[in-house]
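Instructor's aside before we start: the two examples that follow are unrelated to each other. I chose them only because their records fit on one page, so don't look for a connection. First example below.
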Amino acid sequence: MSSLQALCSGLPLRPLPENRGRQAGVPHAPVRTPGLSLAEKQLALRNALRYFPADVQELLAPEFAQELQLYGHIYMYRFCPDIEMRAYPVEQYPCQTKAAAAIMHMIMNNLDPAVAQFPQELVTYGGNGQVFSNWAQFWLTMFYLSKMTEEQTLVMYSGHPLGLFPSSCSAPRLVITNGMVIPNYSSRMEYEKLFALGVTMYGQMTAGSYCYIGPQGIVHGTVLTVLNAARRYLGIEDLAGKVFVTSGLGGMSGAQAKAAVIVGCIGVIAEVDKAALEKRHKQGWLMEVTDSLDRCIQRLRVLQLGLQQAPGWAGLPAALGLCVLSYLVDLAPLGEGRCPAPSGFSRPLPGAPVLLLCPSREARKRKEVLSLGYHGNVVALWERLVHELDTTGECLVDLGSDQTSCHNPFNGGYYPVQLSFTEAQSLMASNPAVFKDLVQESLRRQVSAINRLAKEKFFFWDYGNAFLLEAQRAGADVEKKGAGRTEFRYPSYVQHIMGDIFSQGFGPFRWVCTSGDPQDLAVTDELATSVLEEAIANGVKASVKLQYMDNIRWIREAARHQLVVGSQARILYSDQKGRVAIAVAINQAIACRRIKAPVVLSRDHHDVSGTDSPFRETSNIYDGSAFCADMAVQNFVGDACRGATWVALHNGGGVGWGEVINGGFGLVLDGTPEAEQRARLMLSWDVSNGVARRCWSGNQKAYEIICQTMQENSSLVVTLPHEVEDERVLQQALQL
C-alpha cells in the first residue's frame, strides 16, 4: 500500500509496480473504438512511452499495446496507485503551499471509487469525463504539486502536466486546458483518434478541472429544476402524489433518485447498468428496486390501507418521512420479524425496517414519497406507460426528462432498447455502425412514446444532455415549427426553468472543507444560512427571496439527507451578493479558527458565466450569439486575473464534444485578508460577466440585475442595449 509521501515522489520506476491489470469487481469504461491505422497505433504507443526512460520501454511497450488493442486507449493500469483513493485531510499532503495541498485533495476526491464512475480509467462522471488521460499523468501532477512554490504555476495540457513555470504569488497556481482542438477538427471521430493518441482529453466540466463534489451537486440542481418545473407546468408548490419518470443512475444522473425524495414526489428512474443501480440502492438513494415493468406499474397504482411493521423490527424515525423498502406481501408468511421478498424486488438490507403494504387505492392519490429504480431500458418503460394510457385511459406520469449520457450516445452513453446491457457492450466494440443504427432507432421509439404521453397532461423537458439534439439527428419527431436552431418540440430546462435563474445571477456555487471534518461543513452550512436569512431580512425582490428560501430549505434538507459523498462539500444556488457574503463569512471563520483548515470555493461550469452551450446554458439567448464562446473564454481569463487559485477551460461538457466551451475555477480561502479581497473581486466578475452578456442579448431580468449592480458599484460600467421599439423600422428597411 502506497503512502501520500510515496504518491508525491514521482513515477515509480525502480522497481516498477506490479502489473495488476484491470481490477475485478469495479465498473469499467466501455471499450473505445478509435479506428487507428497502424501508423497511428505506433504513434499512440510512442506518445505513451515518452513518459518513461528507455530502460523500461521494452517491458512496458507490449502491455501498453495490449491495452490499446483491448480497450481503445492506453490507461497504464500498471501505474494505478495501490492506495485508498480519497480526499485526505489537507495537512497530510507533503506540499510547500496550502494551495497545492488543496488541489491534491480535490484531485483525489475526483478519483475516489465512491465518487468516480470508472475510477481505474480515471473517469469521474458522464461516461467519459476524464481527470487525466493515463496514470503517468496523475503521478507527475502529484509530484509537481508537492514541489510547487508560491512563485510557480503548474500548466496542464489536456491531462498532461507540461511543467512548473515561474510566475508570481498573485498568479494562479494551476492553469488547465482540456480538449482545445482547432474548431475544424473538433468532431467526434477526430476526438476518438486524438484521445487514443493521448494528445487531448474530454474533461466534461468538473472532472478535468478537479472540482467535482459527487452527486450532491446535481441533486441540488435536479431539486431546483423539478420544483420550478412543477411551478411552471403544473402550477403547484407541493409535488406530493406527482410522478416524475426519467433515466440514468450513474455519476451525475444517480442524483435523480434522492432529488425525487427531497421534493416529495414519486420518482421512477430506469437504469440498464445493474452495478449503478445497486450502488444507489446501497447508498440509500433508491428506496426500491425492481426489474419488472409490471411491478413498476403496480407500484404506481397500489396504495396502503395502513402500515404495519413486522414483529421485531425497530420503528422508523418519524423525521425520516419516507419508506425505506416497501413490499406487497400477504401478512400470513410473517414470523420472527422477517418477510420474504416477492419476485421482482430486491431483498432488504440487513437490519433495515420493512413496511408492509396492503393494496387498496391508487398510489398517486395516497401522495406517497418514493424513489423506485427500474433495472431495464427507459424506452421500454416509456412504451409501457403509453400502453397503460391506451388501454386504461389513465396517464400515470406527470413530469418527465432524461439523463442518459446522450452527449456520448455511441460509446456507452445511451443503450438501445433492442439489446441487453452486455449485448450492447459487445456490439459497441465489434460493430460500431450497427450499434449506432440501433441507438438511433431506440431514440426514435423513445420520442414517439413521449410524444403520445405529451398529448395528455404530461410535461417533458430536455435536461441538457443532448437528448433532443441526438434524437433530431436520429430522425425523431422533435421539430418545433418556425423555431430557431436551438429550439425543439420540448424545451431545454434552461429555456423554460433555469434560464431566468441564470439571468438573475443565480447558479451552482459550492465549497469544500479540506479538513475533511464534517463539523467544519456544519459550520459553513450555518454561516450560509445566516447570510441568506440576513439578506431576506434586509429586503430583497420577491424573485430573489424565492431563490434564497429554496436554498435555505436545501441546506437543511441536505444535512438531513446526508448528501455528502467523498469530500466534505456543499452546493447551493446563489447570486453575486450571496456568493461574496458567504465567502467572506467562511474566510473570517477560518481566520478565527472556527473552521480548522482552508476551504476551496468553486462552482459547476454549468453556471451564469461559465459555459457557452447553444443547446443548454445559452439556449435561451436569442440574438444569434448562442453559438459564440466569448463569455466562457473571457470568464476563464478574468478569473485568472482576479485571484483564482486555479482556472480551467474545456471543449465539451454536458452536451458533448464540439458543442460546448466551458470553464471553472478553484479559489482557496485561508483566512487571510488577501484571500477575502481575491474572493470579492473574482466572485463579482464571475457572475457579472454572464449577467452582462445575457443583458446585452435582450434578457429583461438580466438587464434589471446588471443595472442594480452598477448602482451598487461605481467601478462597474456595462454597455446596455436599446430595444427596437417599432418593428416596422426593420420591415421597411429590408423592403428597400
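Example two begins here.
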Amino acid sequence: MALSVRSWVANEGGKHLVLVLWLGANTLLFMRTFLMYYCGQQYHYLHQMLGVRSRKARRLLDKSKTFHVACGVAICVFSVVHVSAHLVNVVNFSVRYSEEFPSLNVARYRGEDPRLIILTTVPGITGILLVLILFLMFTASSYCIRVSNYEIFWYTHNLFIVFYIILIVHVVGGALKYQTNFEAHPPGCLRANQTNPDKTEEESGQAVGDGWSCREEARFQPNSPETWLWVSGPLCLYCAERLYRYIRSYSPVTIVAVVRHPCDVIELRMLKKDFKAHPGQYIVLNCPSVSSFENHPFTLTACPTEKKETLGIHLRVVGDWTERFTELLLPDPGAESEILPMVQQRRYPKLYVDGPFGSSSQEVFNYEVSLCVAGGIGVTPFACVLHALLDGWRHFRLRRLYFVWVCRELQSFYWFAELLCALHHKLWKENRPDYLNLQLFVSQTDGLQNISEERYRPLSSRLMIGRPRWKLLFEEIGRTNKHKRVGVFCCGPKGISRTLHGLCNSDRYSGTTFEFNKESFS
C-alpha cells in the first residue's frame, strides 16, 4: 500500500514534530551542561578527582587504527565466505531448477551455465564489482604499497564511496525469495491430484482430509533490502564529519617561514586565525597545487601560544608529494631558508590545514614519569612537548621526563638542537637538572663526527654511539619509580616499537606499571 505523504503529515506530523523538538531541546541542554563541566576552568580539580578525562578511554581511542584494520580484515574474511556460499547457490539454481515453482528460480532453465547467471543478473554483476573493489582496497593497503606509492593507497581506499553505492544496489536484484502465503499454502502441502511419494495412498488421503492440502499456489517475493539499516547511520556520521572538517579548513593558512634543515627536512611555520592546539596533536595538510584530493598528516612541532601565534611542522622529503611540495616552497635547491617580512612575502602555494587532531602524545603530561622514545623524524610529536616545557613545567603533573632519541646520522640532531639546549639551560637555572633525562644515540658510525659547536655542548656530552640498551633503561626507571605508572611513548621504526611494547608487558619490573603508547601515521 502506497503511503501518502500529505495524509501522513496531517495524521502523524504533529506528534513527531513535538517529539523532535523535545529531543532537540534536551540534546542542547545536555551539550550546554556537558561543555560547562568539561571545559570550565572552575571544574579543573573536579576533573582530576572524578576522572572525567579518563586516560584509559583516551588510550582506547588511540587504538582506532588497529580497530579499523581489524574491521577491514573481518570484512574481507566474511566476504570470502559470502561469495563462496553464493557460488554454491548459483550452481544449485542451475542444477536443481524447479519446474514446480518457476518464480523461485534465478536460472531461466535447467542446466543454465552458472557463469551466465552471474553475468546477467544484478546481484551477479554488482557482486563482481564489489569483489574487485574490495580486492583493490585490501591489496593497496599493504605496508609496502603505502610506503612505496602512497597515492595508490589513497585513491583506492577512497573507492569505499563507490563500494557503498554498489552495495545498496546489490540487494535490489532479489536473488533470494521467501514465500508470502504459507498459511494458504503450507510448506509441503499436497495440491490437487498430487500424492506424496513418501506416504502411502491412505496416509495421503488422510492428510488432505486434515487440511494439509494446498488452497492456492505458492507465491514468492524477494527479501526487503536491509543494507541501509547498517550503512545509513555510519554514512551520515561520516558525511557530517567531512562537512565539519571542510568548513573548519575552508580558509587557507598564511605561510610565514620555510627553513631547510639537514637530512632533507623542511620546517614550515604558518599562521591560522583562531587556531588552538595542544602539544602532541597533529594536523592534516592539503596543497591543491600538488594534489587536490591528497591529505597528509604531520605532527605539530610548535603550537600557537600567547607569545607566538604561529604553528609549525617538520616534514621529511620522502615520496612524490613531499618532493613536489618542497619544490613549490623552495624553488631554489640551494636555498637553506626563507624567512621574509610579511610585506615582502612571495607567493607561496595555497595550503589548507585541517585539525588539530588528538594523539597519544598528548598524555605525556598526565603521568608523573614519562619515557619518550623517538627514531629519526619520529621526534616531531615530542618537539612540541619540549616547547611546552620550555614555556613552563610547573603547572603540569609531569615530574620527570626520560627522552631518548635515536638517529642514523649525526646531522639529524641539529633539527632541534637549539630547543634541547635551551630547555637544558632553563632547568639548570631553576635548579631542576634531573627533570629531563636526555639520551641521544647515533647508530651509523661511518665517518662519525662529534657535535663540536660550543653552544651545543650539553648535547655532545649526552651523545652515545650504537643503540640503546632498553632492558637496562627500563630496570633503572623501574627501580627509581616503584609503585608508579610510567607512560611510555614511542614514535619510530617498528623494531623499536616492538621491543618497547614487549618490555612494557614484561613482569620483571615489580611494582612499576609501564603503559605503552605508540604514534603511527603509516
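The two ends are 53 Å apart (CA to CA).
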